[in-house]
Design goal:
Elements lengths: L27 H7 L4 H17 L5 H18 L3 H20 L10 H13 L4 H20 L26 H14 L5 H15 L4 H5 L6 E2 L4 E5 L5 E5 L2 H18 L19 H15 L6 H14 L4 H8 L4 H22 L4
């Protein structure tokens, strides 16, 4: 392929919500509540990852084999994202190492007390509630799989409780603020610099199509139909969907394809739509950095790519789109995930009412 709502709101699939793609089975509900980690959780994960590389060899063979098989189960049977596989296997490995330090040699040696002591240690280290909840969910997913694979007779994690994560409303830019950010990207690209054209195209698709940052980074040139103004993306659980985008996004992508991308293409580029300065596929980290820069340049609240997706969803609903349509656009597996944007819209209406109505 090559080739919505208001000019800037051709939006359609926004935010990386944890609810969208959880490992199947007993831990699915836990995953929906736990996939978002705070900054301190990410730091702790990196610290654990370093320790994991140093200590991985000390895992007894039965535990290491179980960990490897669980990772394969997530990748093949469940089809979850690479990010979720890394997070869950990292958490389970940390749990197993904790158990080994307390004398465990096989999965049968792990009991509820061991799992509770592991989470207690994490809590005492000051990890965020979201991180603790995700780790508890990982333990439940692992033992649910191990029981069904007949590696254990009973599931010690069935009664493992973890902190409830308060559901916070997503960060949403006002429509005029979103327009200022996109205008800033367009104005910066007016000099024709490939990097600026790339940033403009990326920002327009993040908001105008509401795609996740990982979905955007994975888009190939042939996934874009500029005539129909739709883009094909591969979402969570390897689910493919077609997402519409508006005229401004189409204009930005066209200029990037005509004037920006050819200047950066090399023999190693391949089919990637967004190409980095060295010719490789533009990664998620670079997209995030670009969005932060554009927010500063526009003088709006600092936002991440996911916040542009949140904003597009909220603006779609505020503009009259029905929940089911927005659900399909965003690629949400559950309507409940999409419904949270109605709360954002309601809060905005309430705030406007209280500010403007004399008898509020």
């Amino acid at each position: 392929m090559h080739g919505g709502p208001s000019p800037h709101t051709g939006a359609v699939d926004l935010a990386k919500t944890p609810q969208d793609a959880a490992p199947h089975g007993a831990a699915a509900a836990d995953h929906r509540a736990a996939d978002v980690s705070a900054d301190d959780g990410r730091v702790a994960d990196r610290r654990d990852a370093g320790a994991s590389h140093r200590e991985r060899a000390v895992l007894p063979v039965p535990l290491q084999d179980a960990l490897d098989d669980f990772a394969g189960h997530l990748e093949v049977a469940q089809g979850v994202s690479a990010h979720t596989v890394r997070a869950y296997t990292g958490d389970v490995e940390a749990m197993l190492r904790h158990a080994v330090r307390h004398g465990a040699g096989t999965l049968a040696d792990l009991d509820l007390a061991t799992l509770r002591s592991w989470l207690t240690v994490q809590s005492e280290r000051g990890l965020a509630r979201a991180t603790l909840a995700r780790r508890g969910a990982a333990a439940r997913a692992f033992f649910d799989w191990a029981r069904r694979a007949r590696l254990v007779e009973t599931d010690p994690a069935v009664r493992l409780a973890s902190p409830r994560v308060p559901r916070t409303l997503p960060t949403v830019l006002a429509e005029d603020a979103a327009a200022r950010l996109l205008d800033a990207a367009r104005d910066a690209a007016s000099d024709g610099a490939p990097a600026r054209l790339r940033e403009w195209a990326a920002a327009e698709l993040l908001y105008g199509a509401g795609v996740r940052v990982g979905e955007l980074a994975g888009v190939d040139v042939d996934d874009v139909d500029l005539g129909q103004r739709v883009v094909r993306v591969l979402g969570k659980g390897s689910k493919e969907r077609m997402v519409p985008f508006g005229v401004p996004a189409g204009r930005a992508v066209r200029l990037w394809l005509d004037d920006g991308r050819p200047a950066l293409v090399t023999a190693r580029t391949g089919p990637a739509l967004l190409v980095g300065d060295r010719g490789g596929r533009w990664g998620q980290r670079q997209v995030r950095e670009a969005v932060h820069r554009l927010a500063r340049a526009a003088g709006v609240e600092d936002v991440a790519p996911h916040d542009l997706r949140h904003s597009a969803a909220t603006h779609l609903l505020a503009g009259g789109s029905d929940l089911r349509s927005v659900q399909e656009i965003l690629g949400h597996s559950s309507l409940a995930t999409t419904q949270r944007y109605t709360h954002v819209t309601a809060e905005r209406l309430r705030s406007s009412f209280e500010q403007a109505f004399p008898r509020a």
